[in-house]
Design a protein that fits this description.
There is one protein chain. The protein is built from six helices and three strands. The chain is an alpha+beta fold. It has one domain: Orthogonal Bundle (Arc Repressor Mutant, subunit A), CATH 1.10.10. Strands 1-3-2 form a three-stranded antiparallel β-sheet. A hairpin with a 2-residue loop joins β2 and β3. The radius of gyration is 17 Å and the shape is globular. About 20% of the residues are buried.
């Protein structure tokens, strides 16, 4: 079992989730932070585009956006020409929170990667990107 990829990825993810939850500002989940962080980078976009950019399927991003909206971290504008299209943007409160969280997220990544040597970190991240893209 200890040599199975899925098991090892799950262990690494559990470690990340535990550290993330204990350190992140504003009680955000990793998916909420990912959505806020993407919005901060690109500005407003459709909910579908945000889901694609943050690597979330439609039901997941819908739930994430609804929870962020309930916390007044994002604003939702429905397209008057297409009621299915929703444009999402950060509120002032959302922008402030994501800016606070970015430094914390950097520290979390450093803590996760701490057991690796600097060259190993670069290689590990390169390989994770390859696995995530499927090649």
């Amino acid at each position: 079992m200890e040599d199975h990829v899925g098991f090892l990825i799950r262990l690494a993810n559990q470690r990340h989730a535990s550290i993330f939850a204990s350190r992140i500002v504003g009680s955000l989940t990793p998916t909420q932070f990912a959505a806020l962080n993407k919005l901060h980078d690109i500005g407003n976009c459709s909910q579908n585009e945000l889901g694609r950019l943050a690597a979330m399927d439609a039901p997941t991003i819908k739930g994430v956006v609804e929870r962020l909206y309930a916390r007044n971290l994002v604003q939702i504008v429905v397209d008057p020409n297409d009621k299915r299209r929703r444009s999402i943007t950060l509120t002032v409160q959302g922008r402030h929170l994501v800016e606070q969280c970015r430094e914390v997220a950097t520290q979390i990544s450093k803590e996760i990667l701490h057991p690796l040597k600097p060259k190993e970190r670069v290689e590990f991240l390169r390989m994770l990107r390859m696995i995530g893209r499927g090649g």
